[in-house]
Each structure stands twice: as C-alpha cells, then as structure tokens.
Design goal:
CATH class of the largest domain: Alpha Beta
Helix content: 25-40%
CATH superfamily of the largest domain: NAD(P)-binding Rossmann-like Domain
Structural class: alpha/beta
Order of helices and strands: EHEHEHEHEHEHEEHHEEEH
Radius of gyration: 22 Å
CATH architecture of the largest domain: 3-Layer(aba) Sandwich
C-alpha cells in the first residue's frame, strides 16, 4: 500500500471518523483541533494529535504542513475558521488541500482562494440514499468526481449464467467491472436466521460467470450508471 502523510484539521463528527479510518489504513495522520478534549479523545487513533489554533499562521507553519501529501480541512461548520485556515494553508505552501463545504458561498470563496478539491459528505450521503430508494438494484454508491462514481449493483437476472465477456459490460454499457461481491454460508453461524458472509472474488476475467444475487462493483460515469439501472 502507498502510505500517505495526511493532516486533518477539525475533529467534529466527520473529522474524527476520517482520522480513525485513515489511521486504520496505515497512513501517517496528524489530527489538529483547538479543543483539548477532542485532541485527548483522538490521540490513540492517529500518529500525532496537536491542539492548536488553525487561524494562527505562525503556529501552523511550525507544523511542517507543507511537507504533507494532503491536508484535509474539515471545519465547514465554522465559516471564519474555514476561510482563514484555507488561506493560511495556501500561503504556507501546502501542496494538496481538500476542503469540506456546507454552502454554495463556501464553494465560491474556496475556489477564489484556489482550492478546487472540495467535498460535502452529507450531500453525497443524501444523494446515495435517494438513489437506493429510486433503484432497487442499487446497493451503494461512492461519488469519485463530478463525472464518475463507483456503484454496487445487484446483477440483472438476464446476466445470470453468462460470462463477463458475453454480456459486454464495457462495450455495451460503458461500465468497468472492478469486482463481484458474492455471498457464501457463514461457518460461524449458529442460528437459521444468521446472515451469510459476503466476499469479493477479486478482479474478474472475461470468463467470470455471473451468479444469482451477485453484486457487481462497477466504475463509470454517473449517466452511464443511471442508464444501466433504468435498462433492467
């Protein structure tokens, strides 16, 4: 795995979970917040936890953030801190800044500051849930960019028994099959109602045959995913 050096500024609910996930993935993670209690809570789940005021340029510069691969600004609920910190990060030479936004005003100002990597986790989660209600074959979705996503789709009935080469997923539907999630009995199950476990079969070949209840993990443009869902 290609380990990264990442700083997360702002340890609200989202920031705290992000730090934990990044640390679990073996990245070097610095957690930053002005609240001492939050720093105390996260110190066992990161490489380094620092209590500081992110709007103090001298203090921020002393952290060597310009040497990090990414700095993630997760303080969208505090407008003043968001904008001042974003400006400081640009001025001290941080290479890759990823900023969380809440409003269109945030988007406009961040872009004026030259920050183009922006995200809104609540907005993405809401869109994903709405799509799952709209399409019964949609199991989950992760938006990668404004144009592309990774989607988990229940295999269409007329794909069952056919190979990847036969259905021509890429040629006909412009979707790339990343893997297939497939259920198998849980060896630890003790009751009849216990759920089976789901495993990835790895990278599929053209000879991989689809089975009933398979979940296809595909990469493609939003429009192509939508078109595929409405075809079956």
């Amino acid at each position: 795995m290609n380990e990264k050096k990442i700083a997360v500024i702002g340890l609200g609910g989202f920031g705290k979970e992000l730090v934990k996930c990044l640390h679990e993935e073996q990245h070097e993670v610095m957690a930053i917040d002005v609240n001492k209690d939050l720093i105390e809570d996260i110190k066992e789940d990161c490489t380094n936890a620092v209590c500081l005021d992110a709007t103090d340029e001298n203090v921020m510069k002393a952290q060597g953030l310009n040497e990090f691969d990414f700095v993630i600004l997760a303080v969208a609920d505090d407008f003043e801190t968001l904008i001042i910190t974003a400006d400081i990060l640009k001025r001290i030479g941080v290479k890759e800044i990823i900023a969380r936004y809440q409003t269109e005003l945030h988007v406009r100002i961040l872009k004026m500051l030259g920050i183009t990597h922006i995200f809104n986790p609540e907005e993405k989660a809401a869109k994903n849930m709405a799509e799952m209600f709209s399409h019964s074959n949609m199991r989950g979705s992760t938006i990668i960019t404004e144009e592309f996503r990774i989607a988990e789709l229940i295999v269409p009935k007329n794909f069952v028994g056919k190979t990847l080469g036969e259905v021509k997923l890429k040629e006909k539907y412009k979707l790339l099959l990343i893997t297939i999630k497939r259920s198998k009995p849980n060896p630890l199950a003790k009751r009849k109602g216990d759920q089976p476990i789901e495993e990835s079969i790895g990278i599929p070949s053209l000879h991989t045959q689809f089975r009933n209840n398979d979940v296809m993990v595909v990469f493609g443009a939003h429009d192509d995913v939508e078109k595929f869902l409405t075809t079956f």
